[in-house]
Amino acid sequence: METTNPKSEPTIMKLKPIEATPESFKEFGQVIESSPDGEKFGPNDAQLDLSKGIPRFYIMNLQSRTLKFSTITHHASVTQCLGSIGGNVWYLGVAKPSLVDSEEVKKDKGKTAAVESRFGHFYVPQAIDDVHVFRISGPKFIKLNVGTWHAGPLFKADAMDFYNLELSDTNEDDNTLVLKSAPQARLRREASEAMGSAHQRAEAKRFTRCERLRTHSPEA
């Protein structure tokens, strides 16, 4: 890890990706895998909240989303579903929701650490150490809980297509972005070779994040 200098420049943070499973991802949302045709709706299906607007389901083409990020965002009004078309490997940085009810903020009378977003809701800025990176592969998709912080999708290919379920105005009216205050932090990937009986290559990707964040606003 690189250390900060007296001018408090960003520190390079490295993370090893976690394989996304229903158990490993449960604090951030759901991992939805295939199920038999005709199976009744249950807790393993995506538990959606699309009640605050018009749902938008579309194919999203992303290009040059390499394995680095310096911003993270959340949506306070909707769950979001993301999945790669073709089941190719991709990565997502996440942190648990930190939304705060406006009534709680009023009761605390400024004592809370919550800040108001430019969309009017309140949240507690997420600590850098609370960000995790997940690896998603195969025929599955991710459902993010309301307010889950996320960065990505990220991938090694030049471009990938993803299906995306959110609201029609999510990008414009519900996209609270937080970013670093110093020059762009890098997210680095390191690969190591695991020597076994089959001499298979094991991935060991590490991600970096900046140490200091600030709230994104129209004035920023």
TrEMBL record:
InterPro entries: RmlC_Cupin_sf, Ureidoglycolate_lyase_dom_sf. Gene3D superfamilies: Ureidoglycolate hydrolase. SUPFAM superfamilies: RmlC-like cupins. It comes from the Eukaryota. Coiled coil: none annotated. This is Ureidoglycolate hydrolase.
